[in-house]
Amino acid sequence: MPSGKRGRFAVGTPILDAARTLGVYVESVCGGRATCGRCQIEIQEGNFAKHKIVSSADHISPPGPKEQRYDRVRGLPEGRRLSCSATIQGDLVVDVPQDTVINAQVIRKAATDRVIERNSPIQLCYVEVEQPDMHAPLGDLDRLKATLEADWGWKDMLVAPYLLPQLQKIMRARPQGDLEVSEGKWGVTAVVHRDMDSSRPFITALYPGLKNEAYGIACDIGSTTIAMHLVSLLSGRIVASAGTPNPQIRFGEDVMSRVSYVMMNPDGQEAMTKAVRGAVNDLIGKVCAEGGINRGDIFDSVFVANPIMHHLFLGIDPTELGQAPFALAVSGSMQFWAHEIGIEISPGARLYTLPCIAGHVGADAAGATLSEGPYRQDRMMLLVDVGTNAEIVLGNRNRVVAASSPTGPAFEGAEISSGQRAAPGAIERVRIDPQTLESRYRVIGVEQWSDEPGFEEAALATGVTGICGSAIIEVVAEMFLTGIISEDGVVDGSLAARSPRILQNGRTFSYLLREGVDGGPRITVTQNDVRAIQLAKAALYAGIKLLMEKQGVTTVDTIRFAGAFGSFIDPKYAMTLGIIPDCELHEVKAVGNAAGTGALMALLNRDHRREIEAEVRRIEKIETALEPGFQQLFIDAMALPNKVDAFPHLAGEVTLPPRKVLENAGGEGGGRRRGREGRRGRGDSVGG
Ligand code: FES
Q1: pLDDT band at 664 (very low <50, low <70, confident <90, very high)
Q2: What is the CB-side half-sphere exposure of residue 228 using CA atoms within 13 A?
Q3: Which of 64, 178, 279, 522 is the most buried (most CB within 10 A)?
Q4: What span, in angstroms and rounded, lies between the C-alpha atoms of 669 and 657?
Q5: What spacing in Å lies between the alpha carbon of 53 and ligand 1's midpoint?
Q6: 298 CA distance to ligand 1 centroid (A)?
Q7: Do residues 272 and 261 lie in contact, with contact meaning Cβ atoms separated by under 8 Å?
């Protein structure tokens, strides 16, 4: 368990061997010498009617001298046994814990609840190599390889060239600690990588004695934030997680401005490549410090990124991604030595990047797809990662399609008059009374709602400074539900007679959310703000709808929001605005940094690398700009929630207002000025 695999074995078979025979992965570093403690298992006792067996602790051999010694020296947790030593004596239900922790002090927290079955490309293999002999002319490396083949089955091994000059010193070094090495032998641990481009296993590092821990990093390079997990490759536990702003922001806020920077500055690409690699190295320092480990103990790394970040990280000029046909220099997965691109981890560490899906849909979307697995199920899943360029994946077991849509930064609070990032002082929740049109809201860093006693006093500490992305969605949706804006998004000026909250600005109107108190800003939602949200949501919805048409469906079964955006918005409001199609509300879920989780899966299990490589080849890429139907879908999606599409599930949850068509739809600056042409022009030149 938990694999559920079962089999029959002769009495006396070591449990580790039985597991191997069944194809169940149980870690082992010492090769069954009962010194590494990695092969721990637990016996479940009881009558298992389902399996038709009675499992008992009496059906496993009692601890022998080696296991007793391990327990004495290192300590075995209650109920745990070493599967290399314990043998089968009768019917057993065996639990293989997925988190066998040896150095408990370095384990801080789990960033993801998911148990990822481990099958890391990295394996640590302890061997005892014969010391040299005048009569046996085989070299030290050759004897090491021969022993690795004899004990571990590795054939035809290659060795990382940097190791050769150090090899003899390492093999002759006295191992630290109390490891007992057989007379006339040297005990060394080889770090073996078994997922290189060549099918031959590779010795990527070598240590005297028993090396009992190996780490990897999974990293998501976003346009604004770089996020990283440091993981034990032997236990699968996340040792530390951290994030840092992407320093490329100083070259341009969004990916398009960074491509422009490259086009206009001869050394722009090198400067940005250097900046992102520097930030990755700093972040490695941070997670290592947090986990109390040495960066030299990191032997594998997996990266995901949007196409432009992916190219810049790999040192590739992204100019081609800034213009049609958005050609990627490379779309497939890549792997090489991490030090080749200046990543400061073990000199024998590898670096793997997930494949990109298309010129607009990157390795980050591939990571999210691997994490959420629309292709592993029958239900129609919509997976959306909202950023300045939304990446959209829709499908199920039969077929998966993907596209991107240029939503722009409005959902993140940019382009909104009172917009700000989510920080103390930002309004994060909004409710509007349908009768009085008065609002109540919540501010980040303040416990009370704005209409509760003590709010103003508490808000003195943070101020009330603006509206963050989640609240922009809520306030515009509430304005729609209370009739302040029409289905075309026009603020109804006639309500000014009824409520002082409706303010006139020339030809248009705005909604007053908060009067400036004590010198704080006056916070309003203007006609232009509503327009910006409409344009963003229309671009996203039109992209989604196009994919639904490709799939021949009018509804989706389940919706996953990847990224920070989805973590804070209320699905009800997202649907009220028609950001996403109709769906049962409880089927709309935020999945956080799914791209990072996908990277983690690929780090811990090489089968996941093959899985996503094959799946990306199968995904159909749709270029929204080339689809004749996109324009009409976009226009329909400008309406709230949509001009033509029904939202029956939503209608069961909220009372959608009766249709109200108002004049003056242009907004004070002419809201349609950046209609589809403008958006697409921007998006087409953006890429991922
Ligand atoms: S395999 Fe190392 S202790 Fe069992």
Answers
A1: low
A2: 26
A3: 279
A4: 27
A5: 27
A6: 22
A7: yes
Q: Which atom of ligand 1 lies closest to the CA of 83? A: 4
Collapsed DSSP state (helix, strand, coil) of residue 264? helix
The tens digit of pLDDT for each residue in 57-113 reads: 999 999 999 999 999 988 999 999 999 999 999 999 999 886 654 433 333 334 455
Task: Report CA(33)–ligand 1 centroid distance (Å).
Answer: 6
Q: What is the mean pLDDT of residues 517-529?
A: 91
Name all residues whose Cβ lies below 6 A of ligand 1.
Answer: 28-30, 32, 34-39, 82, 84
CA 73 to chain centre: 39
- Ligand 1 atom nearest to CA at 39: 4
Mutate to test the pocket of ligand 1, among 25, 26, 27, 28 (most ligand atoms within 8 A of CB): 28
Task: Check pLDDT > 90 for residue 525.
Answer: yes
Asked if 223 contacts 156 with a C-beta cutoff of 8 angstroms, the reply is no
Cα(71) to centroid of ligand 1, in Å? 12
Are 307 and 356 in contact by the 8 Å Cβ rule? The answer is yes
d(CA 411, CA 629): 24
Atom number, ligand 1, closest to the C-alpha of residue 70: 3
Which one-letter amino acid corresponds to residue 9?
F
Mean pLDDT of 191-203: 89
Closest atom, ligand 1, to C-alpha of 85: 4
- Where does 222-296 show beta strands of DSSP type E? 225-232, 238-245
State the distance from the centre of ligand 1 to the C-alpha of 349, rounded, in angstroms.
Answer: 24
Residue 210 CA to ligand 1 center (angstroms) comes to 11
Give the Å distance between the CA of 66 and the centre of ligand 1.
10
State what percent of residues in the chain have pLDDT above 90: 74
Any idea which of 114-123, 223-232, 555-564 has the lowest mean pLDDT? 114-123
Q: Report residue 429 CA to chain centroid gap.
A: 26
> Token pair for residue 113?
């609840």
Mutational pocket test of ligand 1: of 17, 25, 39, 41, the residue with most ligand atoms within 8 Å of the beta carbon: 39
Q: Which residues pair with 203 in a beta bridge?
A: 159, 192
Nearest atom within ligand 1 for CA of residue 84? 4
pLDDT at 196: 79
The answer to whether the beta carbons of residues 27 and 118 sit under 8 Å apart is yes
Q: Which atom of ligand 1 is nearest to the CA of 28?
A: 1
Distance CA 645, CA 418 (A): 31
Q: How do residues 458-507 score in pLDDT, each as one tens digit? A: 999 999 999 988 899 999 999 999 999 999 999 999 999 999 999 999 99
Nearest to 683 by CA among 433, 450, 445, 392: 392
**pLDDT above 90: residue 656:** no
CA–CA gap between residue 202 and residue 155 (Å, rounded) = 10
**124 CA distance to ligand 1 middle (Å):** 12
